[in-house]
Amino acid sequence: MTPAKKPEYEVQWDTAGLFRIGQIITGSHFDSVKEEYDIRMKDWAGDGQQTGEGIVHISGGKRDAIKGFLEEKRYAITSEYYHYIVRARGKKVDPTSISLKIRELGLKFLWVHVIGGTGPDRS
For residues 41 and 96, is the Cβ–Cβ distance under 8 A? Predict the structure, then answer.
């Protein structure tokens, strides 16, 4: 058996300017800076790939600030200790609208797209 390849992350948006848009970073690079952000978002096709729904993880100390917005969008939210897992019922999760809402709130924000993985990582 070969060990599963750890995912890498493509930076979609970084309000702190630590990364450039489109930059590919490793999980350890992400982990080294993630606490500097109020909210982080990870999106990937993962096991929702066949349906096109996708999955989003939202983490960070201020993630509750957008919970009402997610509920308005009728997303299915699973609360875990460090993050929310956000899925959509029969439609696609829209990470762009979520990120715009976070920016409206003026929070320090990092959004990455998970690549090289087949489903949600557990970080």
Answer: no
Residue range 14-62, pLDDT digits in tens: 999 999 999 999 999 999 999 999 999 999 865 544 555 678 999 999 9
pTM: 0.85
Helix (H, G, I), strand (E, B) or coil at 12: strand
Q: Are 9 and 27 in contact (CB under 8 A)?
A: yes
88-102: burial string, b at 16+ Cβ within 10 Å, e else: beeeebebeebbebb
* Residues with Cβ within 8 Å of residue 63, at least 6 apart in sequence: 39, 83, 84
